[in-house]
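Case study B.
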Amino acid sequence: MFVAWRDLRFAKGRFALMGAVIVLITLLVGLLSGLTAGLARENVSAITGLPADRVAFAAPPAGQSVSFTNSTVTEEQWTGWARRPGVTAAAPLGIRTLNAVAGERTAAVSAFGTRPGDGLAPGAVAPGEAVLSGSAAEELDARPGDTVRLGPLEARVSAVAGDASYSHTPVVWTSLDDWQELGQGGTTAGERATVVVLRGDGADWAAGDAAAGTEARTVDGALTAIGSYQAENGSLQLMRGFLFAISALVIGAFFTVWTIQRSGDVAVLKALGASTPYLLRDALGQAVLMLVAGTLLGTGLALGIGALVSGGDVPFVLSPLTVLGPAGVIIVLGAIGSALSIRRITAVDPLTALGSVR
Amino acid sequence: MSLALDAVTLTYPDGDGRLTALDEVSLTVPAGRLTAVVGPSGSGKSSLLAVAATLVAPDRGRVVVAGTDTAGLDAAARAELRRTSIGIVFQQPNLLPSLTAVEQLQVMAHLSGRPPASVRERAMELLDAVGLADRAARRPHQLSGGQRQRVNIARALMNEPALLLVDEPTSALDHERGAAVVALLATLTRDRGTATVLVTHDRAHLSVADTVTTVQDGRLTVAGRA
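Model:
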């Protein structure tokens, strides 16, 4: 790093410009990552928060995938699952999005119907009562003891607990019987819930599916059954992927130009006896130093901006995964991009340092 | 002998054929002696330096530097030989723009894996020897052409090479400064016991040489004492 470090100080303008690009890309990726995680949380936190090993959907018609919207399971199905060896719990869960009204306030919520005692809700549910998530309570300005109307159902708020969201709407937990009264969402006689939440140890899930006429998925696998999550998350991840690729390309392009510019110096150093590994270490060290400095600064800015917006209306998640993950990826991809461009050092002929040899 | 070339032939691709740059050239340069190589442009002077510096391998013949036969050395071994035994004074100073004068010398130690700080004293001594101790902290763009060339010479001496190869060191200098540089090279050669090959087109500088060799069409046509 003897020469590389001095190059960094000597060519301050060029490296500052490139460093600024890295800072901005890191900032953008950091914010996008936080936003992606925030939106995902609003979409799926009610599902990922379930105490479940599998979520069983009604088996879809041939050629179709399972979805929360289309799935309806019957009592026979969840009782069938409950009898399976190795299955320790089979709890029906109804999901329906509708408008909730409390006083003058109206909000779109997702009503999650569960049997009292199944332990799916963050508070105790009972007929005629509802447990509001924090966001639902805030949007409806409702407190324990208030009354909320969920479609045709009136329920007393028994508790405000958790912060579960489903498909960008806050969750209101009701009893399964009350939830079945909400009925209008296309349900027909015999349909009792949306999915079955399963827990088990050594259960044969495939055999259970075959017997019950369901399709059990892991919790992560069940997330793709939320249509909006798949489309939204896919788009954001695509943007993030492109940003990572762009950062690697931009960094690679910069170091390609930089390496070409200093090929004369490299030829002199080779002629003086510098080994190729020495020159590669020097150049790669320079690239990694700039990458780390730019990424740290960009991550710091993303952290600051994220902290400012995450408490407000913007769905933004600050976590090691959303903050340090993108930084690490940018450093690794940038190092790969610069390594690919720096490798041309090996092709520099020290003979050129002597000028013409004829 | 610090440098021994024995029947060295070097050719380059030239269209469908090959151009002979050095043709059965033999030359020996002992320690503490300065050999001047003169000849017209394109005669093969720089090719002679390139072969002696192990920057290019000859088609035929032997090249022995500081007792090491360079035949069969791979790129890493040739680089090590250049680090330890060969000093090159380039035609253009070829200083690294981001390094100060003293750092241009210290980097030679760093190439060999030694801490640059450990050789600062020696670097300053060499800068003093070429009259630039007071310019140690200056970068190349802050030095005159003659000063840059003197740093170039000091850098070549940094690792105490057995062989010093000097390529047209006065081409960018006026006569007076050129004469001073050549005189300095002659002094350093004798004081430090290096074997020096001075390639020049300027016959005015030959008086300092112990031996003068003329290259013509890739052959050593005349050899004798200055």
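DSSP finds six helices and ten strands in chain B. The remaining cases will be described in the next quarterly update.
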